Amino acid sequence: MTEPTVRGGRVTRRRLPDRGAARTPLNQRSPFVIGFFGAVGALLAFWLGGLLLSIGSTIILVVVAMFLAVGLNPLVEFFERRGLGRNWSVLAVILIVLAAIALFLVALVPVIADQVSAIVSNAPDWFSQLQHNRTIQRLDRQYNVIAKVQGFVTGAKFGQSVAGGVVGVGVAVLSAVANTFIVVVLTLYFLATLPKVKRSMYRLAPASKRHRVTDLGDRILSNVGSYVSGAFIVAMCAGIASLVFLFAVGLQQYAVALAAVVTILDVIPMIGATLGAVVVTAIGLATDPKIGLACLIFYVLYQQFENYVIYPRVMARSVDIPGSIIVIAALIGASLLGVVGALLAIPTAAAILLLVREVFIPRQAAR
User: Same structural domain for residues 206 and 236?
Assistant: First the structure.
C-alpha cells in the first residue's frame, strides 16, 4: 500500500507499512520457547501422573473384573455353541457361579468353621508343648523368651495395639467386602457386554490392519480365559491331593479346612503352594512331630510333581510360554501389585510374547 506525496513539483509514492501483514514468527528453536513448552509438558505429565495414582486402586478393580470376565467367557461361549443366546448364556454362567458359592457356604463353611475353632482351642496346648520342648527351654534360659512374651501380652500397650488392630481389621474387612461387590458387578457387566467392548476396541485400529488386530486380540483373550481355567484345575488338584493326604496321615480333624486353604492359596503363582504347605506343615508339627515331618515330605514331593507334571500339562493347552518367563513374570507382577500382580503377570507375559512372535519378529525378518 502506497501514499502519493508532492516534492518539488514531482509526485512520488511512499510505501506505507502493511498493518495486516503477518508478524515475524517466533523462533521455534529459541531456548526460551523450548524451555517454556518443556516445562508445560512436564507439569502436565506430573498432573496426569498424580491423577492416575489417585485412581490406581479403582483401575486395579476394573482390571481384575475384566480379567475375571475374560476368564469366564469360555464358559459363556460353551453355552452359546449349544444354541443359547448371549444373555441366556451369561445368566446360566452366573447361576452356576452362585450355585457353586452357595454349595461351598452350605457344605464346607460349617465344617471349616468347626475345624478352625478346634485349631484355635488347641493352640494353648500347642504353646504348652512348645514350652516343654528342649530347644525352646534352652532358648528361654538364655534369652528369657517366654517371660518377655508373657509380659508383652499382659502389658497395657498390647491391649491398645490389639484394639487398634481390631479396628484396622474391621476397616480392612469392610473395604474388602466393598471391593468384592464392585468387582462382582463390573465382572457381570463386562461379561454381558464383552463382544461389544471388543468390537469397540478393535474399531480404534486402522481399517487396513483391523482384521489382523482382531485376530491377535481374540487369541490374547482366549489365552487369558484358558489360563484362568488351567489355574483353577491346578488348584483343585492341589486341594484334592491335600484332602486325601490329610485324611491318610491322621489330620482328618482339620482336613477340610486345610485343604480349602491350600486350594485358595495355590491359585497364587509361585508362592501360593509354598504358603499352603507352610500352614499345613506348621499345624502338623504342632499336632505331632512325625505328622509334621510327613507333611513336609509330602508337600516337597507334591510341589515337584505339580511344577514338572501337572502345571506344564495343564498350561501347555492354555498359554504357550516358557517356564523361565513364567517365573520372571510372576516375580515382577508380585513385586509391583502383590497378589493381583502375580495373578495378572502370566497372561500378560503370554500376550506380550504372542505379539513379539506374530508382529515384531516377522517385521524384523522382513527388513
Answer: no
